[in-house]
Design goal:
Immunoglobulin-like, 2 domains, four-stranded mixed sheet, 3 helices, 18 strands, disordered N terminus
């Protein structure tokens, strides 16, 4: 019995030694592992602001985007145009693809501001930037002035939209609006019954017309 056990132990050691001394060949062809091909996915991000503005009949120069694939610069396409002769909110989409057809996109919205609003001294003096609290949810919305009469607003619904943006305009007095726009974070959005009061404290309210947000008035107070 002892001899059999010793022979089995010796055999196991021999097999282990052979296994350890075997050299695996990892010299796979480029971009493969064994028989599998490595797929690299594209990355893309916009250059400049996510939301920009240009005065009606002015010149808009698109900063474009930066796309990479496996660490190298890659080509991308741009969908959408900006008609600077017509006020409105325009959405540009930038797309990079790899050879297998997998794509990655990023976006920008451009507000074409009516000449009268861009040159209005009241609108120019207004700055509604800041953090606003929606009491009903305890969640905040953040405004950033981009240009005269144009604001980038994060979480316009005051609920689950943290990190998501729309364009808000102030083209006269203290009047505010979410003009019809294709906001990539939400889809088609707009506002109705929008009101802003400088306070103090400053307050505003609106119905945020977006999928899943209902038709109730949402009220906010500046912090």
């Amino acid at each position: 019995m002892k001899i059999k056990i010793s022979l089995l132990f010796f055999s196991a050691l021999l097999l282990f030694g052979i296994s350890c001394n075997k050299k695996d060949d990892f010299n796979y062809p480029k971009d493969t592992v064994g028989s599998s091909k490595i797929v690299y996915f594209p990355l893309i991000s916009t250059n400049g602001g996510k939301i920009m503005a240009v005065t009606q009949n002015g010149t808009f120069t698109d900063p474009g985007a930066t796309a990479t694939l496996n660490g190298a610069t890659a080509q991308y396409t741009t969908d959408g145009t900006v008609d600077t002769g017509t006020p409105g909110i325009y959405t540009l989409t930038y797309t990079a693809k790899n050879a297998e057809g997998f794509s990655k996109t990023d976006w920008r919205m451009v507000a074409v501001v009516p000449t009268a609003a861009a040159n209005d001294p009241v609108v120019a003096a207004n700055d509604f930037s800041g953090v606003y609290l929606r009491g009903a949810t305890g969640v905040t919305s953040t405004w950033q002035k981009i240009a005269n009469g144009v604001y980038q607003v994060e979480n316009p619904g005051g609920s689950s939209g943290v990190g998501f943006y729309v364009v808000v305009t102030n083209y006269s007095g203290t009047n505010i609006d979410i003009p019809d726009q294709n906001a990539p974070d939400f889809g088609e959005v707009s506002s109705t019954n929008a009101h802003y009061s400088v306070g103090p404290p400053a307050t505003y309210s609106w119905i945020f017309n977006a999928g899943g947000y209902g038709s109730g008035v949402r009220s906010f107070v500046k912090q």
